[in-house]
Amino acid sequence: GAGVSQTPSNKVTEKGKYVELRCDPISGHTALYWYRQSLGQGPEFLIYFQGTGAADDSGLPNDRFFAVRPEGSVSTLKIQRTERGDSAVYLCASSSMGQSTGELFFGEGSRLTVL
Amino acid sequence: GENVEQHPSTLSVQEGDSAVIKCTYSDSASNYFPWYKQELGKGPQLIIDIRSNVGEKKDQRIAVTLNKTAKHFSLHITETQPEDSAVYFCARASGGSYIPTFGRGTSLIVHP
After folding, report:
1. CB-CB contact of B102 with B87 (8 Å)
2. Which of A21, B28, B66, B78 could form a disulfide with A110 if both were Cys (CB 3.0 to 4.6 A apart)?
């Protein structure tokens, strides 16, 4: 079956612009995670959804970052007034609650470059 | 805090040798320890995991050991092959939400 799909795969924008990144999780997966990965670093947690609600948003760096999952499936990460420091690969992952492992299934990421 | 320290940052081995990557953590509530492999341009993929009630787990050429008292865990890859070349991340999680905190990664290079 299809894995986690993220669009766009690459996004180049100018400082101060607004950006939306989309994640389409594996069908039936109720849990959805957003991570940010800078070059040479491990993924850094941003936000976790269980169904439609953000169960943990403690990783969002500031109020320029916001994420939604209105119907409990597709999620959008929104970044306002982008800064050069926001440049990174934004990874989305999903998992199925109730499975025997805590395995997260990651997409290939959206590479954001802020000029 | 919840940080995970991972060493080494780069590991270069000859094909057929073993590779060992080590991680330490500080949060005593950690009870789940996954390892992910990330190939260039791809998202991380789970290769093995271990829970706090188990000391060792093996899956073919890979094994993970956990020492809860010392708060460290390790990944062992035997008989390495060039296709094992990738970045490996250890992680830890606690509670029921399985939100992993990742280490900084180890770039494993296996020379043919």
Report:
1. no
2. A21
Residues A99 and A58: their CA atoms lie apart, in Å, by: 24
- Shortest Cα distance, chain A CAs vs residue B105, angstroms: 6
Phi, psi of B39 (to 5 degrees): -95, 160
Cβ A21 vs Cβ A15: under 8 Å: no
Cα–Cα distance between A11 and A21 in angstroms, integer? 9
pLDDT tens digit string along A35-68? Answer: 999 999 999 999 999 999 998 999 999 999 999 9
Summarize pLDDT for A79-97 with one digit per residue, the tens.
999 999 999 999 999 998 7
Indicate the residue of A4, A45, A101 with minimum beta-carbon distance to B49. A101
Q: What is the tens place of the pLDDT at every residue in B16-67? A: 999 999 999 999 989 999 999 999 999 999 999 999 888 999 999 999 999 9
Q: Please tell me the distance in Å from B70's CA to the nearest CA on chain A.
A: 23
What angle is formed at CA A74 by the lines to CA A71 and CA A78, rounded to 5 degrees? 105
Q: What pLDDT does B56 receive?
A: 95
Q: Is A43 touching B (CB cutoff 8 A)?
A: yes
- Enter the DSSP assignment of A72: S
Please answer yes or no on whether B6 and A42 come within 8 Å at the CB atom: yes
Residue whose C-alpha is closest to residue B47's, from B29, B61, B31, B66? B61
Chain B positions touching A56 (Cβ under 8 A) are 97, 99
Quick one: what percent of chain B has pLDDT higher than 90?
A: 87
